């Protein structure tokens, strides 16, 4: 408290005092390193670069904040729900740190008004504010440490905006979310039950693997097939979010599969048609040509001529028939 009062007096004469007080209203304390908080709110679309040519945005802080947020929320959930199983704790934490929740929190504390992004970038079709919230947590950690981060989450976020008991009962369908993503990006997703076993208390358990374009994306375990699929889908979504190499491999496989499908459905050209078809066509044209070029003969002569032409080598010895 005393530290805040001292900082408040000192910052009254600072040239960027408005920015300091702006962050104070959100944080409940004054920043020490203002620049790191400002960078946490810079979307990559701004394309700003340092003197060394390095991009200046919040992506690295977002990476750090994601890890810190998982640890803090996990700590809070663990202490709040005594005796609950790991699966319940994991699902509850996931509901809190998912992009939809973080987006909403960013708007509620006023971060959305401070995020800087290029005008061509649409904030309505992305999780820009949720990403900024994670980067903001990373900035607090670097500026003030883990304990201050946890204090901010407990007193500012959970106390005012999150009802843990209500959040734990909220349904979260990771499988539907993954399928929706796959339909949007036109890739194939499949769920396969790979193992069924018994836990220490003789309860049946299931393990499911989810594959994207045939590539293993995540495994999940649960006390039902549905729960195992949900956990597998959750892992796949997290991998899609954090692993760029994995996403690139999916795009490569998708392109290969589409090319194979196009070649399979491609109609045959004239040169690629079966040889028998060409032979039949040629034979037909020869027959037509013979008929056209044959001279006109009297009926009796035509019959005699026809009888003399053997149908095959086997019929060549047949006796000549006398016309009626």
TrEMBL record:
Cofactor(s) essential for the protein: Mg(2+)
Gene Ontology molecular function, alphabetical: double-stranded RNA binding; metal ion binding; ribonuclease III activity; rRNA binding
Official protein name in the record: Ribonuclease 3
GO biological process: mRNA processing; regulation of gene expression; rRNA processing; tRNA processing
Function: Digests double-stranded RNA. Involved in the processing of primary rRNA transcript to yield the immediate precursors to the large and small rRNAs (23S and 16S). Processes some mRNAs, and tRNAs when they are encoded in the rRNA operon. Processes pre-crRNA and tracrRNA of type II CRISPR loci if present in the organism.
Subunit structure: Homodimer.
Keywords for this protein: Cytoplasm, Endonuclease, Hydrolase, Magnesium, Metal-binding, mRNA processing, Nuclease, RNA-binding, rRNA processing, rRNA-binding, tRNA processing
Catalysed reactions, as listed in the record: Endonucleolytic cleavage to 5'-phosphomonoester
Pfam family, one: Ribonucleas_3_3
Record PROSITE patterns: DS_RBD, RNASE_3_1, RNASE_3_2
Ranges for region Disordered: 295-324
Xref: PANTHER family: RIBONUCLEASE 3 (PTHR11207:SF0), RIBONUCLEASE III (PTHR11207)
Active site: residue positions: 66, 134
NCBIfam families in alphabetical order: RNaseIII
Family: Belongs to the ribonuclease III family.
Localization (cell): Cytoplasm
Residues reported to bind Mg(2+): 62, 131, 134
EC number in record: 3.1.26.3
Gene3D superfamilies in alphabetical order: 3.30.160.20, Ribonuclease III domain (1.10.1520.10)
Residues annotated as domain RNase III: 20-145
Tagged with keyword rRNA-binding: yes
One CC-aspect GO term: cytoplasm
Source domain of life: Bacteria
InterPro entries tied to this protein: dsRBD_dom, RNase_III, RNase_III_dom, RNase_III_sf
Amino acid composition bias (Polar residues), ranges on this chain: 312-324
């Amino acid at each position: 408290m005393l530290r805040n009062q001292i900082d408040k007096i000192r910052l009254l004469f600072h040239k960027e005092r408005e920015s300091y007080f702006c962050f104070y209203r959100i944080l409940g304390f004054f920043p020490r390193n203002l620049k790191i908080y400002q960078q946490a709110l810079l979307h990559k679309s701004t394309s700003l670069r340092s003197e060394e040519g390095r991009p200046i945005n919040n992506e690295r802080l977002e990476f750090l904040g994601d890890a810190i947020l998982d640890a803090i929320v996990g700590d809070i959930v663990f202490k709040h729900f005594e005796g609950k199983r790991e699966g319940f704790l994991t699902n509850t934490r996931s509901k809190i740190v998912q992009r939809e929740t973080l987006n909403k929190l960013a708007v509620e504390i006023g971060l959305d008004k401070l995020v800087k992004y290029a005008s061509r970038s649409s904030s309505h079709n992305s999780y820009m504010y949720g990403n900024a919230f994670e980067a903001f947590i990373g900035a607090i950690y670097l500026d003030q440490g883990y304990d201050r981060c946890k204090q901010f989450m407990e007193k500012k976020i959970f106390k005012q905006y999150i009802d843990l008991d209500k959040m734990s009962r909220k349904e979260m369908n990771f499988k539907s979310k993954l399928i929706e993503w796959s339909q949007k990006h036109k890739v194939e997703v499949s769920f396969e039950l790979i193992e069924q076993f018994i836990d220490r208390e003789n309860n049946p358990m299931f393990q499911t693997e989810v594959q994207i374009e045939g590539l293993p994306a995540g495994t999940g375990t649960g006390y039902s097939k549905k729960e195992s699929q949900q956990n597998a889908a959750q892992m796949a979504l997290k991998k899609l979010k954090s692993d760029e190499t994995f996403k690139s491999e999916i795009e490569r496989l998708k392109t290969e599969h589409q090319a194979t499908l196009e070649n399979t459905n491609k109609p045959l050209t004239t040169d690629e048609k079966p040889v028998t078809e060409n032979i039949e066509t040629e034979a037909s044209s020869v027959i037509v040509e013979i008929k056209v070029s044959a001279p006109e003969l009297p009926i009796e002569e035509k019959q005699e001529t026809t009888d003399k032409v053997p149908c095959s080598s086997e019929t060549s010895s047949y006796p000549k028939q006398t016309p009626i």
